[in-house]
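Quick question, first post here. What does this chain look like in 3D?
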Amino acid sequence: MLQIQCLSSPPLSAQTLNPNPTTNTKLFPSFSSLKSTQAHAFKFNPLSLTTKPSKFSLKCRQSEYFDQKQRVNDSSSTPSPPPPSAGLPPRFYVGHSIYKGKAALTVEPRAPEFVPLDSGAFKLSREGFVLLQFAPAAGVRQYDWSRKQVFSLSVTEIGTLISLGARESCDFFHDPFKGKSDEGKVRKVLKVEPLPDGSGHFFNLSVQNKLLNMEESIYIPITRAEFTVLNSAFNFILPYLLGWHAFANSIKPDGTSRSNNANPRYGGDFEWSR
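> Answer (accepted):
Ran it through. Tokens below.
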């Protein structure tokens, strides 16, 4: 609530504001007599008859309210992420990139896919994978991502990289149109070879695309430390790519036996009872 407090002198009466002797002869017989008789009491200054502006002060008890409102307005000016859709968990996109003079490599995980069953449960329909994206350099610390080439690592291929020794090499061959009419028209080969000094590995991706009449070869050296980071990320994400995290999150203390026995292919009870 606002309180207004006026600090001013009492209002002057008509007697004080009117020095004209003809107005009220009883109160002001004459200006000269008033001046003579009251000379010892006070000195009359005509300028004192000028109305002085009153001193005005405003006190507000609701300053905290305006301070809080200002803080709310300041915070509202900062952009915030949009709220997730109702009933859907928020989605996150992550990746790890390695930049070198000749090329850049980006590593991103891709989640597994599930299909619903009539029973209300979900079944794994496709395992997850790790997507490798190679982009050639277009200048100093610049890369041409419009010419990027991609390669998807399966869980088995990820296991091969994890178990790769410092002096060992491996290669993977992919045909995106295998089993289709365009089989053999696109060939992708990823070779991982040790560096001559044993300080890391070369990642070399060769792509031959007869549909576009294009051949591309992009290679990038990966140091031992960078390869260790990749292997650590691969070890962590591997169970999630298999979808085992969904099964682990669905386990309840009172329903473990029912969930296992519900699968007709599960024969654990028969084996342990022998």
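The chain has a mean pLDDT of 78.
Residues 68 and 74 are 10 Å apart (CA to CA).
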